[in-house]
Amino acid sequence: MSSKTLHIVEADVIVVGSGGAGSEAAIHAKQNGAKVLILDRGTFGRSGATITAGHTCTAAVGDDDTPELHFRDTVIGGYCIADQRLVELYAREAPECLYELDGWGDGKTLRKNENGKFDLVWPPGGHSRKRSVHYGFLTGPRILWALRREIDRKRVPWMENILVTSLLVEGGRVAGVTGLDWKTGKFIVFKSKAVILAAGGFAGLWPSRLNTTAVECAGDVHGMAFEAGAEMVDMEFVQFIPAQVDPRITHINVTLTNFPAWRPNIREHGKFLNAEGMEFMGKYDDARRWNTTRDILALAIYNEVTAGRGSPHGGCYIDLTSVPKDVIDYEFNKFQGGKSIPKSYLRRCESVGFDLSREPMETGVKAHFTGGGLRTSVDMMSTIEGLYAAGETQGGVHGANRLGGNALTHVLTLGRVAGREAAAFASKTSHVSFPKKKVDAEHRRIVRWMENKYKTGESPVRIRQRMQEIMWQKVGILRNEKDLKAALDWFAEAKNERLQKARVGSSPRTFNLEWATAIILPHQLDTCMLVARAALERTESRGNHHRDDCQAIDNEHWLKNVYLWRTGTGSVSSRTEPVHVTTVDPKRVIDERPDITV
Amino acid sequence: MNDRTLRFKVYRRDPGARETEGRFQEYTVPWWEGIKLLDGLRYIQEEVDYSLAVRWSCRIEDCRTCQMRVNGKVVLSCQVPLEDNMVVEPVPRYRLIRDLVVEFGEKMESSEYAKNEFEI
Fold this sequence. Notes:
CATH architecture of chain B: Roll
Oligomer: heterodimer
Number of strands of chain B: 7
Order of helices and strands of chain B: EEHEEEEEH
């Protein structure tokens, strides 16, 4: 393509994604003097998984709580393989981050008690203190609302409907990104000194009906960063979570199916049953039962269903029919507060003819949160100079399982660190030379799909559907060597053969979902490969990673993380490193807390 | 399996291809228990007509980007059960990108229907 027709946009720091992490990063980069630009593939301020966060955001702000305790709970909850340097940083900065966020919404972002302090409630299983800050069931939307206000106030520029297609790296340093403008079909080059990838996780690699994430979290950015040379960590850890499988209520937030487990009032009267009417959680975690950590709950449901004790749509039952009416009304209505509560769960359920005080709720498991991602140091820089990762795109923060409520805290807190650090980096560096050849090659890769060279061919949409089914069947909750190897073969064949012969049949150049699928699919297939490969490497079961051919946790050999990167020849290499420890000695935790070794 | 189907009309127009007039295209999709309008539109995009432009994000009523006009009334398509004879159009007052997809831009925040129901 000639340089005349090339659209170039320049900034110091490009932020990819406008959810919790991206917004925090952009605000703090701007505050620290950088010329920032946010790119979002969807609708600005509306896309990504932050908005889906129903309820809790944890921080050590209670009188009986400290960042050290939050840190310790998180490390133990992650089966001792989270990067303790990152956990320490976020537990320490979380209170300050939330006070700042509260200020951006004029002190009304998050709910307060009568003393004007954050109204604290119990978080989901695994936390030892009451540390959930919230805004009823609208915590995620509310946080985005406050971030949006600050972005407007600080006049942080943004562009929406921009699909980032590749990372530009020159001589080991980031030079910017390329993007496709969905509104016009134009190819745009974004030159920058630093790039912050805050584009969400990869739960979108599982079928839509079996994941709970937003559509933007398609998992392509991980493959894109891997291709550019970034090292990935913890890719095997995918959190599956109890979620509605009753098709009438699948549009209702996953909080509905998780909330009862950790609200003492509901738990006291409610039941969690399999299809035979048995309360089965005692078999899996006798001490905590229904209020156990998410990994154990998900595996338990999965086991009951596979053993033939599941509900018609493949789940178990949350039975709240014997919970007193006033408790139901308080928990699912009034707790959300406000004079009018059109989004209360009771009302949302009513609107589709489901009454949770009369019928049990079918609850299965879906891919929810992904713990793996780009390896970063404590300044959030990846292994590529100038490339930062924040939020769910970043790996290593939660270890083998994420505690409920820690996601918002992580993405907001480390997002602001990434913004700060990227601005500092940009202030002392200059733009690297423009990788013209790479830009041309990427442009060709994108437009070739619209040239319709082939008259016939499979649509990339079909390949993606198949990919998602394989992720569920072979790289799902319960894994084994044979399935993982078969999946790896399939991903390689799909990328190297099927996709090469595929054809985009639809011709519009604006908002063409088939074209977009073709563009991101090779990166998605790479991310699938990384998940399967990491899962194959880890020959034990820990947290969210379960192998039915290596069922036990192996603390002797596996207090380690799996790192994957692309070699010069394009193949994938792996290595393990002992977990990064600061103050919590995993060996001592295991001696003190034998329950986490079960 | 069941043989029940649902038939409804979807607005199509590509301003990028200089189409000045929109038209309605009729589609038939299989019925399933609990099927929402967004499910039907996504079924069309993935199984019947790859070129249909439709926008969604969270699928759980929070992001509000799947809003569209059904029989003249603005709704969230992830929430509304799909019914026979629905007439589906893009939301008014925004610039049309294609079919059911509009450019929300700055206007999103001031749109009455985009607001989450916060009590402040």
